[in-house]
Amino acid sequence: MMQLAASDAEADTCRIYEGGNAQVKRRALTALLPLLILGAGPAHAQLVNGRFTTSFYTFQRFDTVGTSRTYLRAFQSVQLSMAQHDFSVHAYLQGAVNGTNDFGDNGNVRFYNLYLRWANIGKMLDLSLGRQAVYAGVGNGTIDGLTARARVLDNKITLTGYGGASVNDEYTGVRKDWHDNLNMGGQVLTTLVPNAQIGLSYMYRGEERDSYMALRETQLGDSLKTYLYIPFMIGGGSIAEQLGSADASWSYGGRVSVYGRYDYDFNYKETSRGQGSVRVNVTDALALTGDYTYRKPRISFNSIFSVFTMNSTSQVEGGLEYGFTPLLRAFGKLGVVSYTDTSSLAWTLGLNSGYGSVSYSGSTGYAGELESFSAQAAYPFFDRLQIGRASCRERV
């Protein structure tokens, strides 16, 4: 699969976007109107940042043996922020159109961020209200709600709390039954221990299940052997995840760094994830890495999938990095993934530079025989006002 992307507005891509769905463009402009009105008032040291990214990719799809078609998808991303003193408005949306209508839609607009932020309240508190991404230890996702972050004891302790409705998969409107789709939690971070950071976090995330009709067998009387199949409304309700996590990182003299994490599932009452990693900078150019990861499949509690047996996996991986120059580094990794009674081997070789990267990876054993090659490059133009990007990936 070949993927190309460019931040400058290429003429062909723009024509596809304009002609593909004019309604997508109107919806995006309508949504940004409140931001433009806020920025149209009297200027009092306002700071406005914006980024527009036009990109597209193509792929080939084989519907039947020997028959294939080439598809095109184009995207227009908009990132805007306006700040005045400690108040700011942030928005991030993306419009997408298809070169063909085989996917059943002409285009859509997704709002990934749209929120107000009041920073440094009392020199210790930040508040964000609206649609926003959450990163708080085990807590993650996008919510329509409120996030509060407080810094105490000379910023050596950070307290984070958030709550709101989870966003639907299409990133469109706000969910009406927000109490059945509640995503809330918090995190405590501290750097009181020298050269270390320790964190504790908790997340509760509910998800409303869609109701559906199904036929159920009903017997007519106790003595009769006659049965009827009557449609019933099944489901609704809400299922939830409840996870807790503890993580810690420690470094010594810029030569050794260690990280560990442990996640616990309160619903299943078992370990959800365990992780440990170490990095040793042998010299300024040479570094050795080691990682261990234990994972349990993340299955929603009380869902139909929870009745099946869930087996964990563990992975041990070692790596080596060597820097020829500050901008040119080579790396290699070799890992073993262990399943219930078998294993798989995975490896990666690559080269990173200031303008792109190249990598070759593969796997054998239980995970299957798979090899892939990927390359990507980026180069700035016009004093970094525009950045051209290109990437490709080939699998064998």
Would you kindly provide a brief summary of this structure?
The chain is mainly beta and 396 residues long. It has helices spanning 11-20, 22-38; strands at 2-6, 46-64, 67-84, 87-98, 107-121, 125-136, 139-152, 157-166, 182-190, 196-208, 212-219, 227-234, 238-252, 256-265, 270-281, 286-295, 313-325, 328-338, 343-353, 356-365, 370-381, 386-395.
Structure description:
This protein has 396 residues and is mainly beta. 7% of the residues lie in helices and 65% in strands. The chain is built from two helices and 22 strands. The chain has helices at 11-20, 22-38, and strands at 2-6, 46-64, 67-84, 87-98, 107-121, 125-136, 139-152, 157-166, 182-190, 196-208, 212-219, 227-234, 238-252, 256-265, 270-281, 286-295, 313-325, 328-338, 343-353, 356-365, 370-381, 386-395. The strands form two sheets. The protein has a 20-stranded antiparallel barrel. It has a two-stranded antiparallel ribbon with strand order 11-12. β21 and β22 (386-395) form a beta hairpin. It is globular and about 80 Å long.
Reading the helices and strands in chain order gives: EHHEEEEEEEEEEEEEEEEEEEEE
Beta-strand content estimate? over 45%
Question: How much is the radius of gyration in Å?
Answer: 26 Å
How far apart, in Å, are the first and last alpha carbons? 11 Å
Would you tell me the overall average pLDDT?
84
Q: Provide the low-confidence segments as ranges.
A: 1-29, 36-41
Please report the number of helical segments.
2
How many strands, which pairing sense, and closed or not: the largest β-sheet? 20 strands, antiparallel, barrel
Helix content: under 10%
Count of DSSP E strands?
22
The gross shape turns out to be: globular
What structural class do you assign from the helix and strand content? mainly beta
